[in-house]
Amino acid sequence: MKSKFSFLVLLLALATGGQRSTAQVTNLGMGPAGSQHLIYWPLSTTNYVLQSSSNLAAGSWTTVTNATTISAVTVPNTAAMATYRLLPTNSPTAGMALIPGGAFTLGNYLFYATGTNDPDYLDASPTNVTVSPFYIDTNLVSLTQWTAVYAYATAQGYTFTHPGTSRAGNNPVQTVSWFDATAWCNARSAQAGLPPCYFTEAALTHPYTNASGTNVYLKIANNGYRLPTEAEWEKAARGGLIGLRFPWGNLITENLACYYAAPGALSYDVNPYAGFNTNYIIGYTAYTSPVGSFAPNGYGLYDMAGNVLQWCGDWYAGPPFPAGSPYLGGTNATGAATGKMRVMRGGYWGAQASYSRTAARNSYAPVNANYLVGFRCVKGL
Predict the structure, then answer these.
(1) Residue-wise over 270-295: b if at least 16 C-beta within 10 A, else e?
(2) pLDDT by residue for the chain (381 residues), tens digit each?
């Protein structure tokens, strides 16, 4: 296993930028400058030998078990020797979770299947839709994160119609329009050296940099940052669970989300009192919770229910949704072709729990900004 031939094959793979050299070698790509590379040699179906490519001395080898997570990399159960990159903290996917692709049931399964008390007819009706794997921010974009990219963007000539607000640096940014969010996504891509996803014309040659411009065209094949499609958002929010009301289950309390409790009005709101979350109110003034204040869902995502509504990329399609929409029979559909309102998902700190349900849908004019609305980004593989 540690023969000169094996090392030669390995070094050839690294020297050629990670291209497949023999049937034994699978390489998932060389990382950006400054990244570290790890080599996994299979000992069996459950254990692997681990070594950094920067140090091939035998003494540095250690054994790890299958599916052990090391930084952002999970050791897969594969029979082939493989080279993976250990993502550095400034990686384009740092702070993001990988959401598996495939079909899932989008929509209000509980209401339509069992008739339980989810009366909001604006919910999506249960329908199988399909998405490809993608990355999504584990947290809402915070004011600190927004400000850092905003400063870079304005120095590069980007313009915004709203500078963004928030209670504090680690709270979610609020009061940004859909156009502000898409321009910011492009700036984040540029800062990370990634191709933009938003353009000003159908030819997809001029990146969208001016948030006062209303012509925005998406190139979803690019792996820069963008807003999630409605299907991607719900797939991520469900956290791998099926047919439940919230990302964690069917009941809600103030220990699970930042929302306005109404236990008398909603049977699934089992909070001991009615009103704003007592952890995030001073006097009569309620506000958002810092990002990541509650337990994550099954995909490691925070605040997929409550705190602030989240912009999605799609035009809003009215009920019954998704009947007659591009989501039916397709993969990675981006919703209605045209519209007047953009989709928002997720609920917010001042709304009852019905808004925070995974299937609940809201819409807003893309030129508007509101202290109830924020966003998070996704990124293609």
Answers:
(1) ebeeeebbeebeeeeebbbbbbebbe
(2) 333 323 322 322 333 233 222 112 222 333 333 333 444 444 444 444 444 444 334 344 444 444 444 443 444 444 344 443 333 455 678 898 888 888 999 998 775 544 444 445 578 888 899 999 999 999 999 999 999 999 999 999 999 999 999 999 999 999 999 999 999 999 999 999 999 999 999 999 999 999 999 999 999 999 999 999 999 999 999 999 998 999 999 999 999 999 999 999 999 999 999 999 999 999 999 999 999 999 999 988 999 999 999 999 999 998 888 988 999 888 999 999 999 999 999 999 999 999 999 999 999 999 999 999 999 999 998
- What CA–CA distance (Å, rounded) separates 351 from 34? 45
**Element housing 25 (H / E):** strand 25-27
Please enumerate in sequence order all residues whose Cβ is within 8 A of that of 373, keeping only pairs 6 or more positions apart, or say none: 174, 175, 176, 308, 309, 310, 311, 344, 348, 364
**Three-state SS for 354?**
helix
The answer to whether 306 and 356 are in contact (CB under 8 A) is: yes
Residues 224-237: b if buried by 16+ CB within 10 A, e if exposed: bbbbbbbbbbbbbb
Task: Give which of 163, 178, 218 is closest to 196, Cα–Cα.
Answer: 218
The full set of domain ranges for the chain reads 4-86, 93-381
Show the beta-strand stretches assigned E in 155-244: 198-199, 217-218, 225-226
Classify residue 132 by burial, with Cβ atoms within 10 Å: 0-12, 13-18, 19+: middle
C-beta separation of 72 from 87 below 8 A = yes
Euclidean distance between CA atoms 270 and 264, whole angstroms: 9
The correct CATH number of 93-381 out of 2.30.42.10, 3.40.640.10, 3.40.50.300, 3.90.1580.10 is: 3.90.1580.10
